Amino acid sequence: MQTFLIILIVVAAIAALVSLIRGIVIFLKTSQADLTGSGPNLSGLRQNKMMWRRVQFQALAVVLIVLLLLLNRPD
C-alpha cells in the first residue's frame, strides 16, 4: 500500500509540474491582441485552465502525503 501511495504522489507531483510548465508556455505565447483585448482571449482561458489543474494536482499530492503519513504512524 505504501509503495502504491508513493507512486501516486510522484505521478501527482509530475502532473503538477507538467501543468505548470504548460501554463508558463501558454503565457509566453500570449499575443499582442490578447494583451490589448482586441481579439478573443483564448490564451488567458488556457492559462487559467492550466494553473487550475496545477492547483488540483498539488492538492491531490498533499492529500496522498497526509494519507501516507496517517498509515505510517506508530500505534
Envelope shape: rod-shaped
| Main beta-sheet annotation | none
- What average pLDDT do the residues reach? 87
The number of E-state strands comes to: 0
Give the termini separation.
Answer: 17 Å
Query: How many helices in DSSP terms?
Result: 3
Structural class: mainly alpha
Low-confidence stretches: none
Question: In the residues, how many domains can be counted?
Answer: 1
Write the H/E string, N to C.
HHH
| Helix percentage range | over 70%
Radius of gyration, whole Å: 17 Å
Strand content: under 5%
What keyword list fits this structure?
3 helices, 84% helix, 75 residues, rod-shaped, mainly alpha
Please give the structural blueprint.
Blueprint lengths: L1 H27 L3 H5 L5 H31 L3
Short overview:
With 75 residues, this protein is an all-alpha fold. The chain has helices at 2-28, 32-36, 42-72.
Plain-language structure description:
It is a single chain. This protein is an all-alpha fold and 75 residues long. The chain has helices spanning 2-28, 32-36, 42-72. The protein has one domain (2-72). The longest helix is centred in the C-terminal third of the chain and has 31 residues, at 42-72.
